Amino acid sequence: MANRAWIALAVLLAAAPLARAQDSSCTRDFANPACVTGCYEEPAPAPDPLEQRRLRYAEIESEHHLSGLASYYSTFFDGRKTANGEIYRNRKFSAAHLTLPLGSWIEVTSRATGKKLRMRVNDRGPFAKKFMLDLSQAAARFLGVDAAPDRFVDVRLIALPGEDPLPEETEDVAEPAETTIASATPGQ
């Protein structure tokens, strides 16, 4: 019997730091279930998973150069392999960045036209220091970067490799399903 008392005391002492502070107005009437549950503070709600991802992406974005001039691929590269082994196609939406993880999803906004486009990073480049991002010809045409005198773009990370992109925040973001999915499948 003495062993049981010591075990019960040890369990209570081990659980004591985990217990939440009791309200000073609570009477310690443990026979009343309303008092027992009312004496303890409610746990804080769990953070929103999407908000956690946005915060994590903001940390990653701070490590990479994500605004600057955009260039676009020459027709010479059509049909050649990209850095992740996919075949590059001029008519599909894709991008190249020097440091973002391959397979990341980004949202590119043209400052000249205000248009936005979501696509995957599937290659490395550009290797000219004045450019920050290489776009496929289809992406450059959609954003107006191929014709606009101002090629300045802003990039926002919306998913890391293997994750689904964050939901769109505005209605004017373009994401043509067949083109984007086709640019995401290797070997086509």
Short description:
With 188 residues, the protein is an alpha/beta fold. Helices cover 26% and strands 20% of the residues. Strand 3 (105-110) and strand 4 (116-123) form a beta hairpin.
Give the SSE layout.
Layout: H1 2-15, H2 33-38, H3 49-61, E1 67-72, E2 95-96, E3 105-110, E4 116-123, E5 131-135, H4 137-143, E6 152-159, E7 173-174, H5 177-184
Keywords:
188 residues; alpha/beta; Barwin-like endoglucanases; elongated; disordered C terminus
Task: Give a structural overview.
The protein is an alpha/beta fold and 188 residues long. It has 2 domains: 2-38, no CATH class; 49-184, Beta Barrel (Barwin-like endoglucanases). Helix content is 26%, strand content 20%. It is built from 5 helices and 7 strands, in the order αααβββββαββα. The chain has a 6-stranded mixed β-barrel with strand order 1-5-2-4-3-6. The chain is elongated, with a radius of gyration of 27 Å. The N and C termini lie far apart (74 Å).
